[in-house]
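Example (one chain per record):
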Amino acid sequence: MRSRANDAAILAGLFWCVGGIDLNAPQLDRVFLLIAGAVLLGLSLSGRDQGKFICWYAILIGASERFSRIPLLDGSDVLRATQEAIVNLLQGLNPYTVPLTSTIPPGSPLVYPPGELLWYLPAHVLFGDLTRVDTVAGILTTVVICIAGLRAGWDRVALPAMLYATWGIGAFRGVDGSNDVSAAFMVVLALAVLVFADRDTRSGRIAFVVSAVFFGWAVAFKQFAIVILPLVLRHLAVAGRDWRRYGLISLATIAVLVVPFLVWDPGAFLSQQLATLTFHTDVWGANLLSLLQQYTDVTDWLPVFFAAEILLTLVVFGVFLRARLATIGVATFAGCAVILVALLLARWTTQPYYAYLGGVAAMALALVDRDAREVAKT
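Predicted structure:
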């Protein structure tokens, strides 16, 4: 039976081509992709399975969408702060104690754990520039979603891969100076490797360990992942997998990255990390308080919303931890839901946070039927 999801994926790619072609100077790659998409759709409608080729189509579209964008020089200050922190570290200074001069305003805290610095370190050493790291991470996110199709099935991953590839906001946030595209990629990579973690093969056992390491790195990159990891562990427990070993490997990875800086200056490190909850004091962004602020003064509501943010986030998280999360994708969607509750009730919520959720949710959709219980054949 022909997959309607595949047809929808091709059509989404064609929509992107039509919207992305410059009518005054049509780009060669995008005209080619328009014609290729029409051919793919014709083959798919005739009953031929095109899932693998749709994945390649999504990767090419994702690359065209992202490489065509010019990095914003006056965008987010996150990567500027990250590069300054890396320079300080390479000079033997503690990046969590040296005041940052490149942030807006100057002296803002370095709220990202050391895994973030490690991710961007190679680009700094090799090129002295971090601006294209998230561009590449966005393309690799599409690639990794497609690779999961080797086990989950091409029909399962083609549409999620295309949705992410054609998502303009996801592409824009890969050049605006924020780090959320890369942070989401770490989670996506951990989930994709988990798909290959068979019980009964040596490569599967290695994949199990590698996935846990990547998940630990994701937590030590950006704090959002600390919500997703326990829910994935919950699914592993429901599926009868060795969730304790997975969790211990992830915790060991976090410890390797974090403990040296924690020992270096415990007070400075902890205060910088906790500042992520308190640094932004104004009401702004894609959240309920910012919406209400357009109609009334919300000053008196701030304590109520802060309490609700903490309480409801913990309640939703607790409910999901007790649920029988049947698949990897469902567990990941549950993590996204917990983060979404916190973002909607927060006083300051920037769009890149939703770009993070978008990348992770695309992978969750690809794995929504994927149970860690069974060994799947390639």
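Caption: The longest strand covers residues 284-285.
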